[in-house]
Amino acid sequence: MPVLMSMGCFTLIHSASCSLLPSPQRVLELHSHSNFGGRIRVTLTPLNTRVSKNLNITTCAAVGNGIETDTAVVEKPQLGSRFQVSRGYPAPLGATPQDGGVNFAIYSLNAVSATLCLISLSDLQHNQVTECLPLDPLINKTGGVWHVFLKGDFKDMLYGYKFDGKFSPQEGHYFDSSRVVLDPYAKAVISRGEFGALGPDGNCWPQMAGMVPFSDDNEFDWEGDLPLKYPQKDLVIYEMHVRGFTKHESSKTKFPGTYLGVVEKLDHLKELGVNCVELMPCHEFNELEYFSYNSVLGDYKVNFWGYSTINFFSPMIRYSSNGIRNCGRDGINEMKFMIKEAHKRGIEVIMDVVFNHTAEGNEKGPIISFRGVDNSIYYMVAPKGEFYNYSGCGNTFNSNHPVVRQFIVDCLRYWVTEFHVDGFRFDLASIMTRGSSLWDGVNVFGDPIGDLMTTGTPLGSPPLIDMISNDPILRGVKLIAEAWDAGGLYQVGTFPHWGIWSEWNGKYRDTVRQFIKGTDGFAGAFAECLCGSPNLYQGGGRKPWNSINFVCAHDGFTLADLVTYNNKHNLPNGEDNNDGENHNNSWNCGQEGEFASTLVRKLRKRQMRNFFLSLMVSQGVPMIYMGDEYGHTKGGNNNTYCHDNYLNYFQWDKKEESSSDFFRFCRLMTEFRQECESLGLDDFPTAERLQWHGHSPGMPDWSETSRFVAFTMVDSVKGEIYIAFNMSHLPSAITLPERPGYRWEPLVDTSKPAPYDFLSPDVPGREIAIQQYAQFLDANLYPMLSYSSIILLLTPDGSA
């Protein structure tokens, strides 16, 4: 028998959808539209009711002017028995502690209903919701923002939302009221606590929820930490993976693979001469996204690199030694501690951020957050609902939509102000220059500005880049673009920059690889690289430090593999060697693979020294990839995105073996760069400072067959430096520039074995080694072997 009511305008919410009923009884909550705080709890025996499939609302037929009390017990609610509820505020977005409670606000323009879901830690493990609070669109919605304010006990409490509306993929809508979705502004995402561990019942995608912040949260003690604010021209960047840096057993850290593990090994970076780390993605992602058995290696594939973000405000909780303890607050503080300790050692921290796509993939992907909140706002969708895929990962973040670009700016500000991050490297940044879905002058600027533009069209002045570049907080941090995307847009040298953006210089990588391995036709291009790529940056008003120079990065061959393999060897990835880049500009020095003759192995070491030397003497900002300083190998695999094993782990035992060899060379070259005033210039070198030479002074050879480049550089600290590269397969005796009253003294010769490759003051028998060159230097000559590079210093001639 139905419940009969005549109680004004009420909405009856069937809370059985929260999976929390202790008995077969049904519990209904009645919310008055005129008095949000008034609730009546009705406990029912089974009824003949109508349930809306889409809205999870139980409606009852109203008959007469009363309620048949013989079939229902009506209880006056104890308002505030757990939470006191009020209207709330539409700003700021997210869950924000204020006035002794928490304000919840989330943007969803196209949803017709919204429910705040509060979830305890224990209920999360059982995929249950602790309390559901439907939001009244007349009271709890301002514009497109749903909001509510709660007071109560939020200890060990998490939250999410349920939204309802159209489930119409062809129109770009994926609303599903059965799903609890993450708030894009959640400050910590909680699900599993241990990296690689499966969820309940072996679930790779267990329910996730956001941490509810409250005013009792202990504020992190920064101990007066302030931004280091190094001039970008002085940086030496180190691309690092947090887990990979210390997970190998040889790291012997107390908390391997975590933020604390990184802290234990920061002194290694200091020893190497690094003053800036670029962290591969540390936003929350699901490493089990690709979870499957790998028959080649006998382990399981995971998303190790992390370029598949779930939430941009939350640090990767499973990189914390604390896991989900204290609802992620301890994990947040652990990452802050890592950054604070890096700053204490004079090391800046840059985050690699992925605002080009998310983990929700294409139309077959999961509904986790953005898709369930308002898919057509957050993603580039075509008129018939298809996902644009400029990222190559199934979807494309709608970066230049007004709401989305404000979200990105809010996120970046949060990391700068709350985590003291020193800058950002933007993955596939060219996507952020593309026009948004439904792009036109009205929805972006408020006024029509000419013809409509196709979604994804590259923009000369992208609104997002404009906002970031002129933001009062973000303009003061390092901004680095990976200036290309998977849709064919390549903007190295042309990325919209506002005078402050730098770029990963992919052309530097390709040119240096070609020249060092002895390819004809690259002498002139290599010289441009040594000068900071003025051909790319000078015309646009930028400087050498706008070029982030690198030879190797996470994506592609390591430095050791670059000189060991002609071809990629990606079978362990389980894709029949079809994944990864085919054009690597590598050279195995005569034999494929690690097992090679003594002569080949010696040549490989020489080439590694040549690459590192070229990186350190080039104008611009050098970037070293983690492990290259000791010669880490991935066995020729140039796409190790899916391996949580030795392929991606820094092997500390190998580093110790290399300490007297390649690591020493890298350390001394980095130190030399930092000592020289002329190797990190604020502007491009001119003829007053730099002179080009060939095999004879002042006669450079820029012909197609030239494999020799040499130059002198006036340096206010070192006096004058002579640097030469002989990438021919033939040795050569070169004539040095004459400097009356001075003589050239050898410092570096990559053809020599350690420790004579770098003649530092502590080298045993250093004077004897220098004397061995005397007969050549007395004649102003120097003998260079094939595939070698040298650095000579000008010193007073004591015999003159």
List keywords for this structure.
800 residues; Immunoglobulin-like; 5-stranded antiparallel beta sheet; elongated; alpha+beta
Secondary structure layout plus pairing:
Blueprint: E1 10-14, E2 26-32, E3 39-44, E4 50-51, E5 58-59, E6 72-75, E7 83-86, E8 94-98, E9 101-107, E10 113-120, H1 121-125, E11 131-135, E12 141-142, E13 145-152, E14 157-164, E15 167-168, E16 173-174, E17 189-190, E18 209-211, E19 237-240, H2 242-246, H3 259-264, H4 266-272, E20 276-279, E21 283-285, E22 292-294, E23 299-301, E24 309-315, H5 329-344, E25 348-353, H6 370-378, H7 402-419, E26 423-426, H8 441-445, H9 463-470, E27 478-481, E28 502-504, H10 506-516, H11 523-530, H12 534-537, E29 547-550, H13 559-562, H14 598-617, E30 621-625, H15 652-658, H16 662-675, E31 690-693, E32 708-715, E33 719-726, E34 732-735, E35 742-749, H17 766-771, H18 774-778, E36 781-784, E37 788-796
Parallel strand pairs: 19-20, 19-30, 20-25, 25-26, 26-27, 27-28, 28-29, 29-30
Antiparallel strand pairs: 1-2, 2-3, 3-6, 4-5, 7-13, 8-9, 9-13, 10-11, 10-14, 12-13, 14-18, 15-16, 17-18, 21-24, 22-23, 31-32, 32-33, 33-37, 34-36, 35-37
Helix pairs in contact: 7-9, 10-11, 14-16
Q: What does this molecule look like?
A:
This protein is α+β, with helices and mostly antiparallel strands and 800 residues long. Among the domains are: 83-211, Immunoglobulins (Immunoglobulin-like, Sandwich); 686-796, Immunoglobulin-like (Sandwich), CATH 2.60.40. Helices cover 20% and strands 22% of the residues. It is built from 18 helices and 37 strands. The protein has an 8-stranded parallel barrel with strand order 19-20-25-26-27-28-29-30. Strands 7, 8, 9, 12 and 13 form a 5-stranded antiparallel sheet that branches. Strand 32 (708-715) and strand 33 form a beta hairpin. Helix 10 (506-516) crosses helix 11 and helix 14 (598-617) runs parallel beside helix 16. Pfam families: Alpha-amylase (PF00128), CBM_48 (PF02922), ISOA1-3_C (PF21156). It catalyses: Hydrolysis of (1->6)-alpha-D-glucosidic branch linkages in glycogen, amylopectin and their beta-limit dextrins.
